[in-house]
């Protein structure tokens, strides 16, 4: 179970969003920053970049998949979330993995692309 205590909303300029959440793990709970965003953006926020990080996400992007990077950072449980800045929260993150998914084109997409090209738009 995850209880969100503070949100840093998605920002199209930053290409990421984060929450500060209490995450229940086993019998305990831990305060963590949970962050997701564009892989090239998250990479710059990581404490340590895994080997082949760019190669892995680039492979899927080149094959038409969408890729989101996930990262986290443990925080002291007694931290007052109101006083942590976005920059502080989203620094020194630990890589958690990639979410890779497909967004197939609709059946009539190719037809409309062809029409647009023919119309010189």
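^ Assign residues to that structure.
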């Amino acid at each position: 179970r995850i209880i969100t205590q503070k949100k840093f909303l998605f920002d199209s300029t930053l290409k990421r969003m984060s929450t500060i959440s209490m995450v229940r793990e086993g019998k305990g709970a831990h305060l963590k920053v949970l962050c997701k965003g564009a892989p090239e953006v998250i990479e710059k926020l990581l404490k340590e970049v895994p080997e082949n990080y760019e190669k892995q996400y680039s492979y899927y992007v080149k094959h038409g998949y969408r890729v989101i990077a996930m990262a986290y950072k443990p925080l002291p449980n007694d931290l007052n979330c109101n006083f942590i800045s976005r920059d502080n929260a989203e620094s020194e993150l630990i890589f958690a993995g990639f979410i890779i998914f497909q967004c197939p084109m609709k059946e009539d997409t190719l037809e409309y692309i062809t029409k647009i090209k023919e119309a010189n738009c």
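The longest strand covers residues 2-11.
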